[in-house]
């Protein structure tokens, strides 16, 4: 009977294998979800792709000294049981993943699932055995692996619930002629459960596409077919932000909104997560007045047109507002030639700082920052709310269009950068001033501060995210037993 007891004890110990989708905006919340669960007594084995691991250790080495073979060393020092390993994504380190995006995504589908299968095979026989799999919703092989090894299947959704629900009801969009037809309906969509009304232009870019047979589309079809088989969906959002959308989804299957998932104290995270070396902006920011600086970033992988970059650059000069611009060398394309107008870097002198990458959360929390010109990546939005920074919205790709709708139309603490397809410098300057100065800026800041308070409350001891996290853990313990 002691043998049985031992087995039972082991089986009841929640041990999750977690794997981050290999993009910056997925790695950051996945790592912090691992920390959250570990702090509630989970054992976590966290997996990065070798490429992501290589990028993180290289940039960490550049920023902070000795290369860490294991990014969770710091977390373990504070008593968390997080183990760490890597798998190949199927491509050599030097392969240009952003240039060959489709090929890369195919690799994640086939080669990677075989590697994960092998790894899980080992870990279910380890002590204590792995009993749940927590992977990104876009890893389309999760239910296959969970079925094979009898694991609790947990899907991690890193975008708003609104985006999830629209993908989830893709069949409805198709049946109603808003998606997948050569001549899609252009009127508002008002039949998706939990979504009052949404325009087609506010759908994720893949749902607006006329060609619905691309590699990304095939991944989307699979991902949202299999998410319906998940035992649990974890969302990096907050119940009070999206109450109707979440409760409609929660009628279908268990969905836990436990966001915002990041280290909210802003003590430097003990875990390295940045894929590129971060330029230090603090010294420059310290010399600027409160709320006077506009922060600009288009995230980790979206591209913009050279024309838009130039109009934004000239608009910045016209606005006379100080700025920090994170301009990735590959922002226009992967040819890495100068994306800015000739002479721009000399013209800005003390007015502007252009860097290839920074620690965004650190910059946003600096008192000199007063606005954020953003591509509307979901992490950027949550971070901006957390720092009470109003947003100038410039969506470029994927869920960013839907996120813009939430920020500007539903929550009212953002301004659209463009009203038409193209951006013009005078409009850019006008919008920047509206964001940064006068009564309009005060109004926007008041709104974003209210939402920040709601997020803060959600994370408090009797808040919705904390309650949902505890319920999630109870639910998982029952499912594991
Ligand atoms: N980020 C950063 N430094 C930068 C730009 C971005 O650390 O210079 C971080 C940012 O804080 C966020 C993530 O990278 O957590 C980007 O995620 P998001 O969802 O905003 O956009 P994506 O890159 O996925 O399009």
Features:
481 residues; alpha/beta; six-stranded parallel beta sheet; binds uridine-5'-diphosphate
Structural write-up:
- By secondary structure, this protein is an alpha/beta fold.
- Helices cover 44% and strands 13% of the residues.
- It has helices at residues 2-12, 24-39, 50-64, 73-77, 101-109, 111-123, 142-149, 161-168, 170-175, 205-208, 215-226, 243-250, 282-286, 306-319, 344-347, 360-364, 378-386, 400-410, 425-436, 438-459, 464-480; strands at 15-19, 43-49, 82-87, 132-136, 152-157, 232-235, 255-257, 293-297, 322-326, 352-355, 369-374, 391-393, 414-416.
- It has a 7-stranded parallel beta sheet, with helices on both faces. Strands 10-9-8-11-12-13 form a 6-stranded parallel beta sheet, sandwiched between helices.
- Helix 18 (400-410) links the parallel strand 12 (391-393) and strand 13.
- The chain starts with a helix and ends with a helix.
- The mean pLDDT is 93.
- Bound molecules: uridine-5'-diphosphate.
- Residues 23-25, 28, 274, 297, 299-302, 326, 357-361, 377-380, 383 line the site of uridine-5'-diphosphate (UDP).
């Amino acid at each position: 009977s002691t043998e049985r007891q031992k087995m039972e004890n082991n089986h009841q110990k929640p041990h999750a294998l977690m794997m981050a989708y290999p993009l910056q905006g997925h790695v950051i919340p996945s790592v912090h979800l691992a920390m959250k669960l570990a702090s509630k007594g989970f054992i976590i084995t966290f997996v990065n792709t070798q490429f992501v691991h290589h990028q993180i250790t290289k940039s960490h080495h550049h920023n902070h000294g000795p290369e860490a073979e294991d990014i969770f060393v710091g977390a373990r020092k504070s008593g968390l049981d997080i183990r760490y390993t890597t798998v190949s994504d199927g491509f050599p380190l030097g392969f240009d993943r952003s240039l060959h995006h489709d090929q890369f995504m195919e690799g994640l589908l086939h080669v990677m699932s075989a590697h994960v299968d092998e790894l899980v095979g080992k870990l279910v026989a380890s002590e204590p055995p792995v009993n749940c799999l927590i992977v990104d919703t876009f890893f389309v092989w999760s239910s296959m692996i969970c079925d094979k090894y009898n694991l609790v299947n947990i899907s991690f959704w890193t975008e708003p619930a609104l985006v999830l629900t629209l993908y989830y009801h893709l069949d409805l969009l198709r049946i109603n002629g808003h998606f997948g037809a050569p001549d899609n309906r252009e009127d508002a969509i008002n039949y998706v459960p939990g979504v009052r009304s949404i325009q087609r232009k506010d759908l994720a870019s893949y749902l607006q596409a006329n060609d619905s047979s691309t590699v990304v589309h095939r991944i989307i079809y699979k991902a949202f077919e299999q998410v319906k088989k998940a035992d649990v969906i974890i969302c990096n959002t907050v119940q009070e932000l999206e109450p109707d959308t979440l409760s409609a989804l929660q009628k279908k299957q268990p969905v836990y909104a436990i966001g915002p998932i990041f280290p909210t104290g802003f003590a430097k995270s003990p875990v390295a997560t940045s894929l590129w070396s971060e330029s230090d902006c603090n010294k420059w920011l310290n010399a600027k007045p409160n709320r006077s600086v506009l922060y600009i970033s288009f995230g980790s992988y979206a591209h913009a047109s050279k024309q838009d970059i130039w109009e934004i650059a000239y608009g910045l000069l016209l606005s006379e507002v100080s700025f920090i611009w994170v301009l990735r060398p590959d922002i226009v394309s992967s040819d890495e030639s100068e994306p800015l107008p000739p002479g721009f870097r000399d013209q800005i002198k003390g007015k502007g700082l252009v860097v290839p990458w920074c620690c965004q959360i650190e910059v946003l929390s600096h008192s000199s920052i007063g606005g954020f010109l953003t591509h509307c990546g979901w992490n950027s939005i949550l971070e901006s709310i957390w720092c009470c920074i109003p947003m100038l919205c410039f969506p470029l790709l994927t869920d960013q269009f839907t996120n813009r709708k939430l920020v500007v139309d539903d929550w009212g603490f953002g301004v659209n950068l463009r009203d038409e397809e193209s951006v013009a410098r005078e409009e850019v300057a006008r919008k920047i001033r509206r964001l940064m100065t006068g009564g309009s800026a005060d109004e926007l800041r008041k709104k974003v501060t209210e939402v920040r308070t709601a997020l803060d409350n959600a994370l408090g001891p009797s808040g919705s995210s904390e309650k949902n996290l505890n319920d999630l853990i109870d639910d998982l313990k029952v499912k594991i037993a």
